[in-house]
Amino acid sequence: MPAKRWRSPSSFALTAVAPHTRVVKEAAGDLIGGLMPLATTLGIRSDTYTAERVVLSMAWKPSLCTAGGLLHGGVMMALADSAGAACALLNLPDGASGTTTIESKTNFVGSVKAGRVAATATILHRGGTTIVVETAVRDESGKLVAKVTQTQLVLRAR
């Protein structure tokens, strides 16, 4: 099938490689930071960026912690939400212009006190109106510290 081209608000080109998937080609600079400025603020980097799996990671920093040197839960939720949104973006249906989080559920099962933390997002449901994503957040030893399920609304031009 011939590839269709979209332009995102940033300088990234979105190319359909199948009816339900997109590949984002980096135009310049950091991929995830160009799509989500908050990622730059938090120091998030993209480790894997495919329609099947998005992995984003960041380093523990004292400035991102709560009492006792624990990485703040809101920071982990922002990392997971960013990974889920990126995964949803790569799985938008034809005619969609973007996505936004409309629901998110986080279960914290551990903490991060040092090192890196990674969020791995995969698709649970790909529909025309919503996309449901599951994200596992793990510390650098691979221990699960949070599990997130989020629903992304599929946006369409009016």
Would you kindly provide a written description of the structure presented here, covering whatever features stand out?
- The chain is of the alpha+beta class.
- It has one domain (44-156): Thiol Ester Dehydrase, Chain A (Roll), CATH 3.10.129.10.
- It is 18% helix and 46% strand.
- It has helices at residues 31-35, 37-42, 73-89, and strands at residues 5-7, 13-18, 21-25, 45-49, 54-59, 96-108, 116-126, 130-139, 144-156.
- The strands form 2 sheets. It has a 6-stranded antiparallel sheet with strand order 4-5-7-8-9-6. Strands 1-2-3 form a 3-stranded antiparallel sheet, with no helix packed on it.
- β1 (5-7) and β2 (13-18) form a beta hairpin.
- It starts with a strand and ends with a strand.
Count of DSSP-assigned helices:
3
Gross geometry: globular
At CATH's second level, what is the architecture? Roll
- How far from one another are the termini? 26 Å
Q: What is the CATH class designation? A: Alpha Beta
Order of helices and strands: EEEHHEEHEEEE
Q: What gyration radius follows from the Cα positions, in whole Å?
A: 16 Å
- State the fourth-level CATH superfamily: Hotdog Thioesterase
> What portion of residues belong to β-strands?
over 45%
For the largest beta-sheet, the strand count, sense and barrel status come to: 6 strands, antiparallel
Query: What would you call the structural class?
Result: alpha+beta
What are the low-pLDDT stretches, counting only 5+ consecutive residues below 50? Answer: 1-29
